[in-house]
Amino acid sequence: KKEENIQTQVIYAGSQVITATEIKANVSMPEVAERAAATGADGVGLLRAEHMILGTGVHPGKILKDKGEDALIEVFSEGIRKVADAFYPRPVTYRTLDAPTDEFVGLKGGEDEPHEHNPMMGWRGIRRGLDQPEILKCELKAIKKLREEGYRNINVMIPLVTNVDEIRKVKEISNEVGLKLMQDVEFGVMIETPAAALIIDEIIKEGIDFASLGTNDLTQYTIAIDRNNENVSKYYLENHPAVMKLIELVITSCKSAGVKTSICGQAGSRPQIVEKLVEWGITSISANIDAVETIRNVVARTEQKIILEAIRKQK
Ligand code: PEP
Ligand code: MG
After folding, report:
1. What ipTM did this prediction achieve?
2. Which atom of ligand 1 is nearest to the CA of 214?
3. What is the mean pLDDT of each run of 10 residues along the chain (315 residues)?
4. Which ligand is nearest to the Cα of residue 218, counting in written order?
5. 301-313 CB burial, b ≥16 within 10 A, e <16
6. How far apart are CA 32 and CA 281, in angstroms?
7. Cβ atoms within 10 A of the Cβ of 177, count?
8. Boundaries of each PEP-utilising enzyme C-terminal domain copy (predicted)?
9. For ligand 1, what atom is nearest to the CA of residue 48?
10. Cα of 44 from ligand 2 centre, angstroms
11. pTM for the whole thing?
12. Cα 191 to ligand 2 centre (Å)
């Protein structure tokens, strides 16, 4: 009964519920930017790059080889610009390319992708980005170019981090192209491996503005379930206690160090998990476009509950 009362007491600004936690949207395709912006989301917590490439029908390596660097920079900047425009001045977090080897095989030039038995455990994420710096550089140059055009609402994060060297190297590469991470743009890492979660203190020391929980991968790597394998999909539990423990560790460690936290995996669209994240003190939640409103309401109710409990404790 008390819960019902709480639900009616959330605070509104116009028609929108007010929350202290930011509620953002995930955007996988620049084409849906307008629809995402219309949800009233506070920004984009995850802008994926893969569809920008898929939309061209050509492998990025081939674009680079046949048409040169400017052509590939243009592909990235065109996609990012669409989203940055739709959301301006709300912040948009661009996640550098995270294509497993099976994702681009169908593209022109994709036949050169290595064949791997388990691409999810293979050549992807920032480790691949660092092995192919010529592509990563184009992404960073695209962001630099957009900044020069006046877009000050773009942030950068890197996927599948497993050690601090990766962070150091990305910063070096970015410096080389004239984009200073943490100065020109906010810089974050995705925490989507148990390794990254467990060394969160070292990652913080290395220097980041924010950590974003990629729970789709964090779940698969924590409980050894290939997220694309139907035979084991029933065991894929985003709220597995081990996953939740890692999430809590990341949020609370970041919080005590003054580093912002976010979530951009599917778990951020699940009300019961979101309640926990808010209780632990997450800074922002990025949900699916269709879940933004529901999640905003769940967060508002949870925050209300926290406030009421705190006040009652003082009585
Ligand atoms: C994740 O792993 O939770 C995530 C958001 O990244 P992706 O789904 O693109 O791997
Ligand atoms: Mg991921």
Report:
1. 0.99
2. 3
3. 51 83 97 97 98 98 98 98 98 98 96 95 97 98 98 98 98 98 98 98 98 98 96 97 98 98 98 98 98 97 95 95
4. 1
5. bbbbbeeeeeeee
6. 30
7. 16
8. 13-303
9. 9
10. 16
11. 0.95
12. 9
